[in-house]
Fold this protein.
Amino acid sequence: MKVNNKYYHTIWLKEDDIRVVRVIDQRYLPHQFVIEDLTSVEDVIQAIKDMHIRGAGLIGVTAAYGMYLATLTFPKDGFDEYINTVAQKLQSTRPTAINLAWAVERQLEAIGSSDNIDEKIQMALKTAEEIKFTDIDNCKRIGYNGFKIIEQISKQKNGEVVNILTHCNAGWLAMVDYGTALAPIYEAHKQGIKIHIWVDETRPRNQGAKLTAWELLNQGIPHHIIADNVGGYLMQKGMVDLCIVGADRVTYTGDVANKIGTYLKALAAKENNVPFFVAFPSSTFDWNIKDGINEIPIEERDANEVKYVDGIVNGQIENMLITPKESPAINFGFDITPAKLLTGLITERGICKPNEKDIFNLFPERKKTYEEGYIKFICNWTKSEPLSNENITEINKWRNKLYNLGLIGAYPNGIGFGNISIRQKNNEFIITGSATGNLKNLDNQHYTLVNNYNIQENIVDCVGPIKASSESLSHAIIYEISPETNAVIHIHNLKLWEKFINKAPTTNSNIGYGTTEMANEIKKIFQRKNYLFNEKFIVMGGHREGIIVFGKTLDEVGNIIINKFNLL
C-alpha cells in the first residue's frame, strides 16, 4: 500500500543484503514512519513480543523470517536442537494468534527436509518468501470477496455512502499488504463506491486511532475516529450499514478471537440488525478447537498499556500516566465473539456462514481430515476374556492416583479424558479401554492389549474385553521410536498445559488428537528434539489440556507428572 505516494510492504528483505529483514516499526505510527532492521532471531522475538509489528498475519510472516535468520547463525553443533529451541521461543511470544505457530511449523518441516546446512538455509528463505506472498494473494482475494457485500449495500442505498464500522487494525499493517477487514474497503474505494469508515480507537493500544486512521488517510478514504463506546449509539441511530473486523483465531464452528472489544460491537450489531462480518485468511482457522470461549487461550498483556497512553508532546513521543499510580489494572488482549452473533466469514475462498457445516463446505479437505480423527479411528477388536490381574495391578495403581488428582477423568458433558499404558513385549502394550475416563474405579475388564497397528492407515488391532483407547496410536509411536520406554500416560490439566505449551516440546496446534497426523507429529518431535529423551514430556498443542509423559517405568512417568503438578 502507499505511504507518501510510495508503495511498501510491511516486511521485506533489505535490497543489498538478504541477511537483513526490514519491517515498519509500528510503535511510532502515525507520528513517525520508522523502518527497523532485524538481523537476528532475538530481534524478531523482541519485535513480535513488544509489538514493533502486530496483526495475526504479519506476526506469522515475521516469525517465518525469524526462523530463516536463525539458520544463518546456528552453532557448530546441535543444529536441530537449536532450531527447535528457537521455534519454541517464537511460538511463546504471542499465544492467541494461531498464524504464528502455523508459520513456525511450516518452517520446521521445510528446514527438516534436508540434512545439508546450506540447503536448510535456502529452504528457510524460500518458505518465508512463500508464506509472505501467499499472504498477499490471500488478502487480495479477501478484498474482492468482501467487496461484493459492500457493492450490494451500495446498490440497496442507490449509490449513497456506505457507512462501515471496523475495530482495531486489520489493514495492510496487520498483514503484508491489503489487509483483511480493510481489504474489501480498499477494493470498494478503488471501484468508485462511496464509503465512509467509523474507526474505533481500540483501547488500550489505540491501533484503530493510530494505525487504521493512518492507513485510510494515506489511501484518501473518508473516515472518522470514534471512542470505542460510540459504536452502539451509531448503530441505534442507523448510522452504520456494515461492520467488518479481522481475527486472530477462528474455530471450525465459527467462534472468533479478535482484539478486545470485538464481542461488545457484535452484541450491539446483533441488537440493531447490522450485518457483522469477520475477514481473515484460512491460516487463521484452528481446526482443532470447537468451543472458542472455553478453548482459545487469551493473552494477558502488561497492565501499563491500560494505565499509560503515548502521544506527541513538544514534537517527541512521550508516555503519560492517566490513572492513579497505585491503582491496579488488568489487560486482556482479546475476547471471543460466538458464532451466533456473526453474519458471515470472509476468506480467500469466499464467504460462508459461521457454522461447522458451511465452513467445512468451503474447506472440504479439512472436513476429511477432521473425520479421519478419533471418531473414525479403525479398531480391529477381538473380544476376549479380561486380562490377568497381574498385568494390570501396577497400571491401575497409577490410574487411580491420577484420577483422584483430576488428571484423568471426565468433563461435565460426560466425555472422558486421559489414558495409561505399559509395554508388554516388542511394541505390544496394555492400555485403558475406550470411554473409561468417566469411571472412578477400573478393573481388568477395562484394559485391552494392542498387539498390532498401522499408523498411516489409522488402524489398531487389539485383544481384550473392551476396545482400545482412541489415543492408542500416540502411545504406539512412542513405543516404536523409543525402545527404552515401557510406560506412557496421557493426562489433561489446563494449568499445566498453559504453563508448558511451547516451553516443553509441543505438537503443532493444527493437528488433532487420536489421528495419524498426531502420531507422525510425535515422531517428528522425537527426531528433532534430542533432549526430549531427558524431558519425557510432550504438550499436545492442538489438543487443549492434553499432555503425554513417558519413561522406563510407570513409577518414573507417574512421578514426573506428580512433580510437575506440585509446581502449580
Remarks:
- The domain at 2-135 is CATH 1.20.120.420 (Four Helix Bundle (Hemerythrin (Met), subunit A)).
- Residues 371-376 have pLDDT under 50 and may be disordered.
